[in-house]
Amino acid sequence: MKITVSRHISVLQVAFIMLFVSYFIPDLAKSSTVVEQLLRYGSYVLLLYEGGKKSLESNQLLRFFLFEIFAIVISIFTRDFYWCIIITIILLISNQNMEWTFNTGFNVLLVSTTLVILACLIGVLPNLVTNRLNDTANRYAVGFYHSNVLPLCYMYLFLFRLVIKKFLSKKETFIWVLIGLCIYYLCKSRTSYACVLILSLMNIIAPLIHGKRILNFTRIIAQLSPVIASVFSLSITLQQGNYDVRMYAINEFFSGRYAIAYHYIRKFGIRAISFMSASEYAENQAVLDNGFLYTGIRYGLLFLLFYFFIFYKLGKLFKNNFLMLIVLIVLSIANMVDNDLYSYGFLPFLMLAFGEKASNKKT
């Protein structure tokens, strides 16, 4: 497996790496909030510098300033700095090819994950043991705060690799499956390994798919996958108070995620736009591992449209590639059992969607 490193690193690439690592740090068993915040705010300063410089060169400084005001207003209303950074990134990367984010993201995630595992092996980071709801099996976190993090890191490495190469050899695919099995044995994360297996199978089948009808159908499903995931998640959540045995069984299968979401909705309600702060959300002290439900409850249902639009644009970009469309579907499935829409795993996909040059390229 070849890892390429460019000698020329732009300000945008440095900002991307800093932001990527800042989202990775909270996943550690021991993390520093100070380092995390320094990297995150530092990346924003670099993004502002690069955006200001480019807008000055193109005589669009006023446009950039107005968009930044808009970004700040959105962040104030949502009480989350995340939107300020993301809106700045979207403004900055317009008319640029963002495919490099997958290569850079892959390298950074591979190195970071390897360092965490080594730190755990020598005792710098603890190997925490977590258990699933109604399950006594030990699930090892291997240096991370939870046992599902390492499998998710591995899954995103596999996703990034697929996007970079577009197709993997059977030998490489077998190696990915084998290493994934070892991680599953340690961490017992079903969804992450299931996603790796599905993508591995689709990687083998993909060269046989040529029909326009199959491609068009897969593209529609890929573009609608976050909508389907959101509707399904919300409908199951709203039925948790009906004492339906079937709903209880579905909730138990998903490790209690929908019951947690139901209690959040009972406490905070669900609105078109929510003005809930992070501290208010954290009062429940229960992690909502569903990116679509988290978005709807934390920020409001209208913010789901942002992610629907991302998948729509990515579906157009990947319209001629069956395997890449399956990647999008798997991405939606993964975010039904975790919340990576606001993390390093989703960041390259977000940037690719808004890089207009990449959107016009046949994949």
Please characterize this protein's 3D structure.
The chain is an all-alpha fold and 363 residues long. It has helices spanning 11-24, 33-57, 61-78, 82-92, 100-121, 149-165, 170-187, 190-205, 212-238, 245-253, 257-268, 278-282, 291-298, 304-317, 322-334, 347-354, 356-359, and strands at 129-130, 139-140. Strands 1-2 form a two-stranded antiparallel sheet. Helix 2 packs antiparallel against helix 3, helix 6 (149-165) runs antiparallel to helix 7 (170-187) and helix 9 (212-238) runs antiparallel to helix 14. Residues 1-6 and 358-363 have low confidence and may be disordered.
Instruction: Please give the largest β-sheet.
Output: 2 strands, antiparallel
The spatial strand order of the largest sheet comes to 1-2
Percent of sequence in beta strands: under 5%
Structural class: mainly alpha
Which geometry do the CA atoms define? globular
Helix percent reads 55-70%
* Tally of helical runs: 17
What is the averaged pLDDT score? 88
Low-confidence stretches: 1-6, 358-363
So what's the oligomer here?
A: single chain
| C-alpha-based Rg, rounded | 20 Å
User: Care to count the β-strands?
Assistant: 2
Distance between the termini: 22 Å
Q: What string, H for helix and E for strand, traces the elements in order?
A: HHHHHEEHHHHHHHHHHHH
